[in-house]
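Write out this protein's structure.
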Amino acid sequence: MYSTAFIDLPPLQAAAGEVHLPGSKSISNRVLLLAALSNGTTTVHDLLASDDTRVMLDGLRQIGCTVDEAGSTVHITGLGGRAPQSPAKLFMGNAGTAMRPLTAALALLGGEFELSGVPRMHERPIGDLVDALRQLGCQIDYLGNDGYPPLRIAHANGVPALALAAPIRVRGDVSSQFLTALLMALPLAAGTQNIVIDVVGELISKPYIAITLQLLARFGIVVEHQNWQRFTIAAGSRYQSPGTIHVEADASSASYFIALGAITSSASGQNGIKIQGVGLDSIQGDIRFVDAARAMGAVVTGGPNWLHIQRGEPGQGWPLKAIDLDCNHIPDAAMTLAVMALYAEGTTTLRNIASWRVKETDRIAAMANELRKLGATVEEGADFIRVTPPAQVQDWKAASIHTYDDHRVAMCFSLAAFNPAGLPVRIEDPKCVAKTFPDYFEALFSVASTATDRIPVICIDGPTASGKGTVAAAVAQRLGYRFLDSGAMYRITALAALRAGLAISPEHEARIAALAQTLPVRFEGGRVWLGSDDVTEAIRTEEAGMNASRVSALPAVRGALVDLQHSFQRLPGLVADGRDMGTVIFPDAPLKVYLTASAACRAERRYKQLISKGFSASIADLRADLEARDARDSTRSVAPLKPAQDALVLDNSDLTIEQAVEKVLAWWQERQPFAGSAQG
C-alpha cells in the first residue's frame, strides 16, 4: 500500500492483464457481525483486509468474541446468546458498515457501550437508526450533536422490556445501513412473536438490503418482505453458524477495472482486462455496474467468478456514449461512471444519488470539484450530477486530486491518468484506499502501461560517501517511486564475480560481464537482495566499495549493466543514484542532481559510520582512500564521474539528510504541473 502524501500518476496509455480483487467490504463486515451473534464457530474465507474490517474485528474482540486470524481466513466463535463484555469503548473509525450495525446489535444484547469514530464519522447521520431503536425502548444517548455519533448505549442492567407489538418504523431514504442494522439485530429479540419493520419513504440502495437478506439466510434467519417496504422476522429466529462461508470479491471495486477496460486500448499482444473473484451471478447489487458500462460502450463478458472487459470498436463503443441513469441500485459504484463520463461523447447525468451526500464525504460536491479541475463542465444538484467532458484535447488540465479521506474518490480519479492529452494526475493521500482496497494502486500498475519515456526518473549522482544513496532512498520513499542503487549493482557484480572465483581484472572482463547480464537484483524494504540472498551487509564494506570501483572501470561490465538498470524504470516512477545515472543511463531524466560534499566531510561521515558499527578506522586513511577513488572515478575512460550538463549541484557538506531530501523534493515539485500542491 502507498502511504505517501501523494502519488503522481504519469500519463498512462494502455491496460491489459488480470486483476484479483479483494473481498467485498459490505459482505465482509456483515458476515463478521453475523458470526459474532451466532452460536458456534464460523470460518470466514477471503475476508477483506482493510481499515473497515479491522475496526469490526477489533470491536468484536472487545465485546468478548474469540477471533483467530490466519491471512484472509478468520475463525470467529460467536456470543451464541451470551452477554457481551461490558462496559466498553469502541472506536469505529469512518466505517459506517461497522458503526450502524454494531450500534443496533449492542443495543439489543445489553451492556454499556460508547461508540465513536473519526471526525467525519461524527458528521454522518445515525439519528434515524437511533429513533427506531428508541421506539423499542432502547436507551441511547448522544455524546455530541443530536442525530450523530458519538453515542452511548446505557443498558448496564440488561436490555429493558422492548415494545415489539407495533411495527418498527425507520426511514429508508437516507442510508440503507439503518435498515440493514435493524434486520441484523432484531432476530436477537424475536423470541415468541414476529417482529415487523416498516420503511418510511423510498428505500434506497435495495441491492444492499438484498445482500443482507441473503446473508441472514446463511445464518439461519429468514426474513420476508412486501415490496421492500415491510419486513417480517419470524418468531423463534435464532442465529446459527453455517460453519464455513466465503466472501465474494468486491463488486464496487470491480467497477474501477471495468471502467479501465472500457476506456483503454489493450497493451501489445494482450486482450483487455480480466477480473477474478466476482462474476455476473454476484449477490452484490453493484454488479449491475456492468449494465451501465455496457450502455456506455464497454464490451463485458463473464462467468461465475470472472469478468472480461474490452473497449468497444471505434464508432461503436468508442468513444464512450453519454448516459442518463437512475443510480439508486449502484450508489457506490456510480461514482466510477462520473469519471468514465470524461471519455464519453455528450453529457452524462447520474440521478438519485442523494446518499452520496452522507458518505465518507459529500461525494456529489467532491466529485464536482475534482472533475472541474480536470477541465470538465459539471452541474450538481441535491440528488444528481451532470458531467460534460472537456470539449477539446487541449482543454484537459493536469490536476492534483484532493481525496477527502474517501477511498472511492482516490480510486475513481486514478482513471483520469489515461486522458487523451497525455497529462499526469496527482492523487493526494493515496493511503485512504486502505478502507476497502489497500493494494489498489499496485493492482492498477500491474495492468497499466505507458511509453517508457513517460515514466519519470530522478537521478542523484555524486562521489563516494556524499550521501546520495541515503538521500535517493528517502526521496523514493516520499514519492512512492521505485529505487535503484546503481552503486549496489556494481558492488553485487563484484561480489558475484568473487563468489564465482573470478578476479576483478581485465582478463576476466568478458566473463564478469556475462554474469552481470542476469543478476537477479532487487531492492525491498531497505534491503538489497541477490536472488534469495540478503547481501545488504556484504556489499557495504570498504573492501566491497573498492571492488565496485574496480569492476565499474571494465567497459564490458558497464555495458552489461545498462539494460539491467533500465529495467528498473517502471510505474509510477524511479529514483536512481550512482555516478553516471544522469550522464549515461538516464540522460533524458527530467531532474538530475549532483550531490557532493568535501572530502573532509565525507571522510568524517564514513569514520562515524564505521565506528558506530564497531570497526576501527582512521579519518586520514579514509580521506586518502576517498580522494584516490574520486580521482580514479573522474578520470576513467568510460562514463567518468562528473555532473550532467543540466544537473543541479547540491553541496550537502553542511546539510542534514532531511534538508538535502527536502531540497531535492522542492526541485522536483518545481517541475510538476500541479500548481499549489504540497510536497507532503
